[in-house]
Hints:
- The chain has helices at about 10-25, 50-70, 80-85, 90-95, 110-115, 165-170, 175-190, 210-220, 240-250, 265-270, 275-290, 310-320, 340-345, 350-375, and strands at about 5-10, 30, 40-45, 75-80, 100, 120-125, 145-150, 155, 175, 195-200, 205, 210, 225-230, 255, 295-300, 325-330, 380-385, 395-400, 405-410, 415-425, 430-435.
- Helices cover about 35% and strands about 25% of the residues.
Amino acid sequence: MKTFYIETYGCQMNIVDSEIVTSILLRNGYLYSDSIQNADIILLNTCSIREHAEDRVKARIRQINSLKKSNPNIKIGIIGCMAESLKEKLLNELPMLDLLAGPDVYRNLPEILSEVDRDNKIINTMLSEDETYSDILPTRYDTNGISAYVSIMRGCNNFCSYCVVPYTRGRERSRNVESIVDEVTSLAQQGFKEITLLGQNVNSYNYIETNFPLLLNILAEQFPQILFRFATSHPKDLSIELIETIAKYQNIAKSFHLPVQSGSDAILKKMNRKYTIDEYLEKVKLLRSAIPDITISTDIICGFSGETEDDHKQTIELMKEVKYFFAFMFKYSERPNTVASRKYADNVDEQTKTRRLNEIIDLQQKISYELNKQDIGKTYKVLVEGTSKKNNKEIFGRNSQNKVIVFPGDISMKGEFVNVEVVDCTSATLIGRLKN
Ligand code: 5AD
Ligand code: SF4
C-alpha cells in the first residue's frame, strides 16, 4: 500500500480541498501520513494569488527533491491553483514533478497516480462547471476538534481585474443544501462547536431556491449549539436580507469580512470591483445600524496599477473612517492571464509599494489598538480553542466578534463557551479573566 502526504498552502478553501483529497485517496486504498519522511507520494496543494506564494512552493519543491535522491520511487505532485495556472510551464521549470492536478480533478487522482506509477508524467487541469465534491465528506486529520470549515460554493464569476482565482478555480457553483446540512450534522455529532462556511464569494451562494441568507437561516435554526462564521463576501452582494439574518441569530457570528481593496473610486473601477466608496460605506452603515456590536475586517491591495499618492491617501482616509478591527494588507502582484496583466502596467515601483504597505499596516495597528481598548471592561462569551503559545497557564479563544482573547485558565475548558471579562489588550489580542 502506498502512503501519501499533503502540504497545504494558501486560503481556507485549500485546507478543505486537502481534506477532500485525503478522503478520495483513503477511499482508494492509499494510506495517510502526517510525515513527509515516510511518504511514497508527496502532494503540495498550492496558491497562485500572489507571486510570493508561488515562489515559496517552488523553493519547497526543490528542497523536497532531495528526498527523491535517496528514494527515486517517490512521486511529487503539485495540485490546486498553481497547477491550474501554470500547467506545463511548471513542469519545465521543475522537472522533478510527476503530476499536476487542478482543483476540479481531485476525483481522478487515483487514476492519475496509477499513471504516474507507470512513470508517466500527468497534467490534468480540466475545470468543471458543476464539481462541488458535495458527496465527499472531508477527512479532518489536522483539527482541534472544535472548529471546522465547510465548503458551500466554489469558483468566482467576479473577475476583479487583478485576481487569478476565476482562472484557477473556474466559474461559481453552489453545493446542494442537503449535503451541507448532512456535513454539519456529522460535525455537530462529533462535538464541533464552530463552523466557518467557505466560498470565494459566499454571498452569492444559490442552490435552486436557497440563497445565502436562507442557508444561514436553516443552519442557525437546526444547530443552535454551533456558532456559524462565513468567508468571504463581495460588497456588491451584501443584502439587507443577509444583515437581518445575522442580526436575528445569536449563533451567527457578529463579524463581517468585507474586502474593500482600495479607498479610491478610480482604482476600484480599474479593479472592476463594481462599487464606489459611497456605496461601500452605505453597506457598512447598514451593517452597523442593524448590528451595533459587529466588527468589520477587510482586504486591501496597495500599489495597484496607476495608484497615485492621492489614491493611497483615500485608502488611508477610508480606513480611518470605517475603523476595521482587522485587515489583510498586500502589495499588488501582477498575475498572468488577468485583465490587469493585459491592460494595466504594474507601474508602481517596489519601494513605493513597500512604503505604502507599511503606512497602512502601521495605521491599522493603531486602529486595532484603539478599538481593543474600547473593549476593556466588557464581558464576552468565548469559545476556548487551546493553550496560549506564550504561556501554558493561559488559554485562548475568540468571541463572536472574531477577536482573540487570552486569559488564565485550564485547558480542560477547551471546546466550552465561557464568559470572559476584558481587562487589558494589545493591538492584536484582548487579555481577559474568567467570569461566572
Ligand atoms: N495581488 C495582491 N493581492 C491580491 N489579492 C488578490 N489578488 C491579488 C493580487 N494580484 C488579495 C485581495 C483578495 C485577497 C484574498 O488577496 O485583497 O481579497
Ligand atoms: Fe478574486 Fe474578486 Fe473573485 Fe475575490 S471576488 S476571488 S478578489 S475575482
